[in-house]
Amino acid sequence: WTNRRVVLDGINPRWNLPRITRLSNGKLVINGDRAYNNWLTWSEDDGITWSPLQKVPFRGACPDRIVELSDGTLLSNVEREMQGSQLRVRRPRAQNLYQYRSTDGGATWTEAGLIFEDIAFGGSGEGAAGGLRGGVRVCTVRNSAGFGHPSPGGISLDNGSTWSRPLLSATYGGMHRAGLLQDGRMLVTYRQMSGNSSLYAWC
Predict the structure, then answer these.
(1) What is the per-residue pLDDT for 171?
(2) Disulfide engineering: 154 pairs with which of 8, 27, 163, 189, CB 3.0-4.6 Å?
(3) C-alpha distances in angstroms, 168 versus 56, 120, 142, 173?
(4) Phi-psi region of 115 (alpha: psi -120 to 50; beta: other; left: phi over 0)
């Protein structure tokens, strides 16, 4: 490995869960939140140099990595709770998961709907949405109501335009990450929340 290179500098407020994605055009993009404001930075030279920070028009915590659909649409999601005029994103209060969409390569973003409405689980977040073939997408989130509770999630059959009611998954964890394997199966990794706090995976 080479010596580390500082891409996103900042101590207070700190960066929260920055994610890096390579798009089909070769660009790299990092997204993350800082004090619930979400930012992007881009690289066109394999990470040697990075663009000035681009603020995106949605607030929330724990953004998922940016996903590119076959038509070039970019998707991401964040968790947030609205209570009166004050944004609250800290557990154990209920948090909803919202999806955002860009159809112009990340220049502009619009809210694309509610993925997960946390009405029964008492604190969910860290949503990870992975894509299967045929426009099917699966999202799994952390259940913060207490250890030993299954992680809820949802299924979309139209590339994230609409989502099912919350469903319980087979995982008991947080920090889920989902990806599609070459044989068509989805691999989900996560931090186990029940028993030993270790890295687990389901396929």
Answers:
(1) 73
(2) 163
(3) 31, 12, 11, 12
(4) alpha
